[in-house]
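Design a sequence for this backbone.
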């Protein structure tokens, strides 16, 4: 009785239109993602290869267990900025010797692997994920340190990268660094603050200041090898724990280090084996309309994501614009909150708060599927207590202690974004579908508000209102907000952990749930005051 039935008509024109629109967005995102895969461009890739070196993603591939997945994080970081897409570093989660690890790899084809402001922000996010989910960290480094022309944006906040490494170690989370080439200035502190360090003979060079800087600072004549070579660090300074013959040998040693960690997850194992959904995941492409003002049933998404399409809905007849219920994904029990008709009313807010509390009572992770225009406005709803009821939902989300995973599948506007566990509420992971949009409100609404305020100001001042200027302003604002609410813009600023193909939703959720169980899973023991 709890298996979801699907009403999706895959032969309808609406389904075909939705599918075509989603595929077009996926193609556009794929084109931008390839810019990150291309690194610094063919010239620098060829030069790197000519030196007999592997590319960043090739190093990761060799490090991972054969045929195991790699969940890349923030691949579009820096999109829409003056910096190369990808932020000159690859970050993600993969399995090494059976252990889920957070992996970062400098991309030396992009300005020698130096760190720009987006490298730093992307690395911060990766470290946050490692700490929250208790993931061993493996750094594959070849970096010239800070990108000096942008040092004013890197130097002050960038020190957190080294603090993070020491805090991970203090929390009992192992950190491993493999040095593939130059690791200078700030880059030298990564191996310096890691638990385990591997260097490569005649390749690795680790020093705070290279020969030119030493000459300028002290007058000393030195060379790379005596100043920071791998053999020197292995025999004299003690910074290198292992001395590898070449890149492949270094990766082999790195894998052996992880194998000897005797690592164990603290969270519970899967409650049952995974069962495929009864409905085809391919059909996820045709559910969300390109016009997000057109409603869709999130149960159609849930039916193609959860184990056996089995979903026990909670309060199905109350607060119907928010779907809540229990399911499992890849054998992990979950609670799901999914927006139905977009608007959150008082009933939906109270329903959400109760459901979140129930999930915390039984230590069950929560999945949030966003498609909301925010909390309802208007005198009727204000008098009915929408502020205090919305605050109740946000209170519950803020103080919930079980893992949260958010996926933006449609609109995510206003305080609804907060109540559904947006980025500021520290979900363990947050991904977006290509159809997603997020902003303080919809473009037309925002432009309309500005127009009303401007018209009122003109009337109060007793001056004529310029209708043509108003129309031009509205068009400009709508265009700007539309561009800034799209997933590539938001992903470029690391407001999500990546844009995913809807067909990969179940796989991504399964990986995130498995990772989340690396740490203990336990519910909240207290909340702030609920205003009743």
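Sequence:
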């Amino acid at each position: 009785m709890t298996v979801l039935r699907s009403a999706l008509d895959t032969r309808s024109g609406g389904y075909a239109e939705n599918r075509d629109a989603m595929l077009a967005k996926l193609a556009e995102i794929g084109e931008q993602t390839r810019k990150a895969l291309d690194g610094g461009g063919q010239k620098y890739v060829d030069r790197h290869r000519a030196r007999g070196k592997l590319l960043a993603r090739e190093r990761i591939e060799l490090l991972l267990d054969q045929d195991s997945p790699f969940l890349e994080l923030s691949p579009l970081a820096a999109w829409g900025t003056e910096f190369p897409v990808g932020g000159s570093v690859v970050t993600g989660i993969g399995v090494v010797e059976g252990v889920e690890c957070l992996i970062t790899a400098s991309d030396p084809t992009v300005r020698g692997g130096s760190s720009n402001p987006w490298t730093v922000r992307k690395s911060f996010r990766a470290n946050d994920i490692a700490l929250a989910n208790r993931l061993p960290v493996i750094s594959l480094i070849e970096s010239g340190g800070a990108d000096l022309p942008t040092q004013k944006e890197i130097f002050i906040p960038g020190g957190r990268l080294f603090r993070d490494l020491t805090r991970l170690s203090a929390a009992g989370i192992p950190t491993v660094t493999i040095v593939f080439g130059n690791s200078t200035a700030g880059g030298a502190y990564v191996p310096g603050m890691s638990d385990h360090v591997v260097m490569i003979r005649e390749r690795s060079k680790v020093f705070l200041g290279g020969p030119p800087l030493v000459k300028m600072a002290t007058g000393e004549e030195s060379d790379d090898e005596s100043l920071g070579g791998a053999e020197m660090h292995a025999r004299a300074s003690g910074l290198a724990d292992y001395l590898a013959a070449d890149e492949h040998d270094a990766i082999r040693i790195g894998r052996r280090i992880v194998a000897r960690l005797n690592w164990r997850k603290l969270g519970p194992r899967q409650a049952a084996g995974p069962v495929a959904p009864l409905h085809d995941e391919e059909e996820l492409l045709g559910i969300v309309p390109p016009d997000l003002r057109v409603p869709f049933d999130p149960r159609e998404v849930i039916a193609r994501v959860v184990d056996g399409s089995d979903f026990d809905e909670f309060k199905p007849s109350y607060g119907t614009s928010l779907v809540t219920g229990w399911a499992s994904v890849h054998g992990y029990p979950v609670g799901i909150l999914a927006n139905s008709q977009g608007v959150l009313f008082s009933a939906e807010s109270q329903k959400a708060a109760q459901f979140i509390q129930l999930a915390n009572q039984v230590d069950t992770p929560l999945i949030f599927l966003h498609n909301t225009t925010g909390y309802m406005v208007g005198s009727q709803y204000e008098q009915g207590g929408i502020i205090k009821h919305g605050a109740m939902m946000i209170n519950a989300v803020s103080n919930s202690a079980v893992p949260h995973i958010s996926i933006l599948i449609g609109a995510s506007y206003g305080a609804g974004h907060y109540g559904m566990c947006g980025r500021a509420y520290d979900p363990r992971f947050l991904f977006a579908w290509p159809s997603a949009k997020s902003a303080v409100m919809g473009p037309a609404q925002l432009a309309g508000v500005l127009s009303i305020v401007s018209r009122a100001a003109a009337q109060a001042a007793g001056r004529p209102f310029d209708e043509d200027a108003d129309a031009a302003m509205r068009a400009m604002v709508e265009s700007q907000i539309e561009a800034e609410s799209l997933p590539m813009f938001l992903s470029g600023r690391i407001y999500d952990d990546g844009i995913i193909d809807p067909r990969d939703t179940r796989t991504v959720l399964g990986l995130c749930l498995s990772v989340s169980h690396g740490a203990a899973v336990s519910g909240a023991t207290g909340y702030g005051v609920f205003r009743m």
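The longest strand covers residues 175-184.
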